[in-house]
Specification:
Distance between the termini: 19 Å
Organism: Candidatus Accumulibacter proximus
Helix content: under 10%
Number of strands: 9
Largest sheet: 7 strands, antiparallel
InterPro entries: CHP02241, Phage_T4_Gp19
Pfam families: Phage_T4_gp19 (PF06841)
Oligomer: single chain
Protein name: Phage tail protein
Shape: globular
GO molecular function, one term: structural molecule activity
Length: 147
């Protein structure tokens, strides 16, 4: 029997235009929003009052949320800044990979045509604590990959 899979080893790669990812932009402490949901529509049948048919209408994705300690001089921060202050968007594909104890891939999720939709920084406080940036991305489609 194998041990349960832990979610503490993972990598995040921004795949934009064949450029090698910047080492500053691959380290995150938390990733969330790895989900997809089928949206349904209720359709009533004539004369049937006991139930309605639920038919699939489309796929809905949550935003991909990435958290990390604040990084100064990051190309990813420049992309987010361009989106938030100049309303200029550049999409990229994002690959999130779950790694095993031996650092070998166990599973992966590919987010296609991702772009920034929210950027926030944790509260500043006189007590010592890390400053955390939260980066939120919308995307057109998620592809779950089982390695």
């Amino acid at each position: 029997m194998s041990d349960p899979i832990l979610g503490m080893r993972f990598s995040v790669l921004f795949l934009a235009g064949g450029v090698v990812p910047n080492p500053l932009d691959i380290r995150f402490q938390r990733v969330s929003g790895l989900s997809a949901e089928v949206e349904t529509e209720a359709v009533s049948e004539g004369g049937q009052n006991l139930y309605t048919q639920r038919v699939p209408r489309g796929i809905k994705y949550n935003n991909l949320v990435l958290e990390r300690g604040m990084v100064v001089g990051s190309p990813l921060n420049l992309e987010f800044n361009a989106a938030m202050s100049l309303f200029k968007f550049a999409t990229s594909n994002v690959l999130v990979t779950l790694l095993g104890e031996d650092r070998q891939p166990l599973a992966a999720w590919l987010f296609l045509k991702a772009y920034p939709v929210k950027w926030s920084t944790s509260d500043l406080n006189a007590e010592p604590a890390l400053v955390i940036d939260t980066l939120e991305l919308a995307y057109t489609r998620m592809q779950a990959l089982r390695v």
